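Quick one - first record:
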Amino acid sequence: GLVGIFLILHAAGARAAIIADVTEKHLANGLKIILLENHKAPVATIQVWYRAGSRNDPWGKSGLAHDFEHLMFKGTPEVGRDDFTRIVQEISGNFNAFTSLYYAAYFENVAGIHIETPIRLEADRMKNLDFTKAEFETEKKVVMEERKLRTQDQPEAYLMEQVAATAFQSQPYHWPIVGWMDDLARIEYADASRFYRRYYDPANALIVAVGDFNKDALLPVITKAFGGIPSNVKPQTLSYVDPPQMGERRVLVTRPAALPFVVAGYPV
């Protein structure tokens, strides 16, 4: 019992210490910056989080947020379509991105001495992303194939998708992050362009940097890179409320499978 109490208190104390070391700043264009200097390893991560998840997809065009995540790697007038990958690899870094219900996030992990490079890359594509109609159509096909492989061809994933669609009615959690197939086919180049202009705004973004750097020296670098990006207006976040659920809801999916799979869900 004493050991358990000690561990709990130690964890709480460590968390409080980390929070105390965090530096936060809001730029004039609305961008929020969070920095945590940590020299335990000679590496650092820079992350840009946009409040632009699947809940922001328009009705009838689910999957747009995730589709757009792919388009963020199509380059800018300054950094060509293949240059982003080359530049990060040349400094032995790695990068990736992901989309959730609430946000799309982009990150680069690099040696601390090279952290200014991804900062420049991220600021550039926040402001100057440039993708063609042909590239949009290609990535849409990629996402549709991804849906086939990861959801439609996977019985468990397919059932989870149906459970969410049954549990939620008016809320945007009704549709999957990857989108319905018919919706994906319906998305157009103009939809992606509007999504970029509306949601990839500094006032709708959050930058996190953690690792081996001097925060007092890095903050002016981030401020200079992102501070000049103009903000149109922070998009309104709508709150959707489902009508009261009056009883148990059930969904049955029949698929070829070796074993049955059962899910019970509770909205909380």
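second record:
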Amino acid sequence: MNPFNSLLIRVALMVSLLSCSARGQDLADMFINWDPDWPQRFGITGVGYSQEQNYELNNFKVDLPLPVDPGALLTEIENEVSQWGVKADAWILPFWNVHAMVGKVDGHTAVHLSPGAQALLDTDQIGVDYKGTVFAGGTTLAYGQDWWFVSLTGIYAYTDVKGDIEPIPSWLIAPKVGARRDKIEVWAGATYLNVSESQSGVFDLDGLLLNYDLELEASEAWNAQLGLRYSLTDSLFMTLEAGFGNRESITGHLEWRF
């Protein structure tokens, strides 16, 4: 089964479970008669995101004239991504939010070569800069009381990339637990990110052309998250979130709700 379809099934099951415990209220009534104490129903958010992580080799092919294991030619693989976009979201029910985002991506992947490969190919790395457009959609389930809350977010993203890199699909799951006081919310959580990247190109060794194909994936799927959300006004909010571990990230949101 496709991992994203599996995620949707799990989310749908959780929605069903939460629906059964929605304080005995009819879901149609909750949908139509929005309580002012619930979150403002709609939101438009400007998003900025920066990330650094290590990749590991999934597959590597190169047309070498020698019987050499291509995997022995590579050492560290690094990836950096910056992303800017706009997100729209809506609370379908008090515990169920859906959202969609579109944005621009700038990325750089550096595949460092072993000393032997450097001598053979006359370069120390395969470096690829790329730009593209990212489209994403997802859903969040949340529950809380006066001062605490928990949430689970699932997102699928598709990045259409220019150049020698194939489109990059990815999906993530992000559980969080947090607390709120006055205008401030803080939380801790984790993110599971499944992402893969494919590259192809040509080495030119003094007229000898060597075709290569690379398939890369994140070396570690999980990382930790810490975040803070501050209410500037009743309708305007600022969020900062940082990721730690093998994948380091920083996210900034400026959110308007109505």
